[in-house]
Amino acid sequence: MLEIRGLAKSFAPGIPLLHDVSLEVAAGEWVAIVGESGSGKSTLLNIVAGLDRPDAGEVRLDGKPIDFADDDALALWRRRHLGFVFQAFHLLPYLTVGENVALPLALLGAGTRERAERAAQRLASVGLAGLDARRPGTLSGGEMQRAAIARALAHSPRLLLADEPTGNLDEAAASVVLDCLGEAVRNAGAAALMVTHSRLAAARADRVLRLAQGRLTP
Amino acid sequence: MSTGLLLQLLRGTLRASPLRLALTLACIALGVALAGAVHTIHASALAEVDRAARALSGQAEIEIRGPRSGFDDALFARIAARPEVAAASPVLELDAALEAQGTQPRSTLRILGIDPFRAIAMQPAFVADVGAASAGRAPRLLDSKAAWLTPRAAARLGITDRGRLRVVAGTGLVELEVAGVLEGLRGGADAAVVDIAAAQALFGRVGLLSRIELRLKPGADEARWRAEIAGILPPGVTISPAASVSGRAADVTRAYRVNLDALALVALATGAFLVFSTLALQAARRRQEFALLRALGVTRRGLAGLMALEGALVGAAGAAIGILLALAGSRALLARGGADLGAGYFAGHAGAFSPDPLGLSAIAAIAIVMAVAGALRVARVVGRMPVAEALRDRSVDLPQGASTSLVVAGGLAIAGLPLLLLPPVNGLPLGGYGAIALWVAASVAAVAPICRATLARIAPEAPTAALAMAQLRHLPGHLTASIAGIVVSASLCVAMAIMVFSFRVSFEEWLRGVVGADLYVRSGEQGDTGFFTRAEQERLAALPGVRRADLIRYDRLVIGAGTSPFTLVARSIDERILLGFQVEPRGMPARPPGERVAWITEAARDLQGWSTGDRIKLPVAGRLYEARVAGVVRDYGRTWGAALVPIEDYRAATGDERVNDVALHLVPGTDSVAMQAAVRRALPEARTIAMEDAAGIVRRSLEIFDRSFAVTYALEAIAIAIGLAGVTSSFAALAWSRRREFGVLRFMGLTRREILRMLALEGAAAGALGALVGLVSGVAISAVLVHVVNRQSFHWSLTLHWPVGVVAVFLASLVGLCALAARFSGAYAVRREAILAVKDDA
What we know:
The complex is a heterodimer.
Chain A: E1 2-12, E2 15-25, E3 30-34, H1 41-48, E4 56-61, E5 64-65, H2 71-81, E6 82-85, H3 97-107, H4 112-125, H5 141-153, E7 159-163, H6 171-188, E8 191-196, H7 199-203, E9 207-212, E10 215-217
Parallel strand pairs in A: 3-8, 3-9, 6-7, 7-8
Antiparallel strand pairs in A: 1-2, 1-4, 4-5, 9-10
Chain B: H1 3-16, H2 18-57, E1 62-65, E2 71-72, H3 74-80, E3 85-97, E4 108-114, H4 116-122, H5 128-133, E5 146-149, H6 151-157, E6 164-169, E7 172-181, E8 191-195, H7 196-202, E9 208-209, E10 211-216, H8 222-230, E11 238-241, H9 244-285, H10 287-295, H11 300-337, H12 357-383, H13 387-392, H14 405-416, H15 430-445, H16 447-456, H17 463-474, H18 476-514, E12 519-522, H19 534-541, E13 546-557, E14 566-571, H20 575-580, E15 597-601, H21 602-608, E16 615-620, E17 623-633, E18 641-646, H22 647-654, E19 661-666, H23 672-682, E20 690-693, H24 694-708, H25 710-737, H26 739-747, H27 752-794, H28 804-826, H29 832-835
Parallel strand pairs in B: 4-8, 5-7, 14-18, 15-17
Antiparallel strand pairs in B: 1-10, 1-11, 2-9, 3-4, 3-10, 5-8, 6-7, 12-19, 12-20, 13-14, 13-19, 15-18, 16-17
């Protein structure tokens, strides 16, 4: 379970971006946060991912608080517990699709065979079976995002963060990706937090919250 | 493409990456500065030698000169009496060692013995001062104890009017009173002028001259006169242009100067690779821009022209800065330390600053040509890229070149082979240089396929290492551009390390062989006015503790046209000595009664065309000394020809019983220091002799050897630094363009340290690949340096020896430095703020 309590962040004195944001996301639950550009959605995600520090408040995962003071500890925390899906996919061009998906497992020290098997299973789960040896540049946008989802869940993280996962996709591709995302989250049992400006995307989630003027409302 | 558009695009290029551009300019400038400074220093030294020689020879047009030991002065009268001769002046020239002053090292002073009444017709400045400035003192020039100094000599010695000079003559000293300074010879050499008869008497050269300076009457048929005169000249006396010493200095030093110039040009070539690398990196970033231009109608030629202009501008700007640095640097070096860069050829020359505009222009032109060539290479590849694909493409790699690199590399390597067989051109190993240039080009062409093949076989398990190798495999164009400079500088450093080590070991082995005696007693450390008489030699040989005394006499002969010096070494010769000189064929030859033999050096064999078994005629003491060549010896002491003859044969032929050195073999257990004291007691009047034991000679010689290569090592270090600058620049650019990738990896849980370790591994792998190619290329080039360049330049044969430890440490250091360069150049791109750039969906 993801717990966010009283999170606050300002970019300049007197100009708050987030103000007393609190939230709980249960395991297997998919929560969407919508808001206009500049509302602080990405900032919230960065803080939850441990890449930015809040001015106040805390974030806990399965009851354990995140220590924002220790950069290396945060990196190891992300390695073990976090999966991230980016708007621009960000598959590494010099690795095959299979190697991209297996990368989180490699970082956790899994052996070559285990990595290959689990990557193949994940790719199959998102409808990309048999594409392990392809290069990312040869896939369509929707395929790349599904591969990114497979990468984000390859190591069975406790928390999945998605930042505008359908922002670069057309409607049809977006729909496929969202289906895929939802199924994957439920199967993996991870807590999933998605930020989006698309109401259609948000509608697929289990719960939708709105971030406006620094506050989170249903 | 219109001029306006061209300028607009150029401005864009120059603003796109100002730091990298500045680094490239700096490296080109450094390369040009090095090459320009080395060239200017040598040009200044030669100009000074020429100027000094011409100042002393004045209006003389021709000189008749003989061996260092002199020729019969009776020839003067016959020459001067010829109707074609307008003026003739006899000269006795000696290098006299000065008495050591306190702890100051001994130096020499050129003594010119002249006939003042004849010399005035050639160079009025020899005596003009006497009449104009010192009325009543003119007869002093004819005073046997008076000497007049040139302004340079007076300044160096700190002596003016009424000072005293004490110079070596035989094993004693003679004192000369300085009668004044010849102000008219300002710009002339460092010399003292004395009356010729006085010089002959003081230095034991009665009846001998060094040269005759001449001027012919206007309209005289010089060619006919030369032909007639040649018939009356004794062997070893030749006709040459006046002030021929400057031409001889240029000849003797040519190979050394060109070799040092070539080494400095390596630094320039490495800088030129940086131009290629910078333009290639920019081409990668501007791939879409170039594709857009092509889509809008710019031709391939237009694009090539743009890139060539960029390269030319960078090359020209770097060359201009480099020339200014070269002029400033060489001027400062000449003022501080003179013109000697370590090898001793120009030792003692202050070297007034005399830049050579033509030479400097050539160096600048080479820089610009290299920069343009690098730009055109990139342009060729950019022109071939598929436009449609490049418009969409976001790849950060360089446009890929032809896949025939291995074929090109092989072709270049093979093309170099026949050049190795070419003979020297004007004493220069141009074929060897050509082969080296082709093999360096081959090694650069081989980088891409070798990297591909090597990286395909490396599959590390650790994630950061696996990511590093995957990244290098993904960007072959970047890898090639990054390490091309490393390959060039590493090739030449490895080659030079092997050559210098081989030389040092060969030199030391030879030295230990030829320095066979226990103690060497010299009549003077320097100069050619010192000698031991027969009586002094016998006193030394009779000392208790001396088992044997070997005698050594030197003379400098004039052979043929006399453009190249030739040394005669008359000495005690036995099988052990010949073994030390590494003679071929070995052993003492059988000699029919009355037959004379000689052993020639490798330089004599190469320059004179002699070989074992030939009968040669050496002009010694005005006669032809005939001998059979019994073998060829190694001689690392000279780059010109020499012949060793048994001293008994020399004495029988010339009657000259003097020697310059005595090599004492001591009874086992005799203390060398005690023997030196005994020598001084045996020769109480000989205050100028120098003594050194064998170990001291070897140690001192090796110190001189190491010092002579100091400039070489400095040039190599700079070439490596430039290569590393290329790696740093390339990795910094690449790291900045990969910051989104680093952001993804941070999101996935890599720590900052792990990402930097990944960059370091990429740098180390790139450095290792460059080192590997550089090692193979360097080994091949070292064989060319040893067996072709060195052989043809200096006429020395060396045995190859392998400095495995030194090369291993050098290559390991190179790899480490590349790792550090990549790690530190990427640090900025791995900061937190940069990581957040991953969220910019550009």
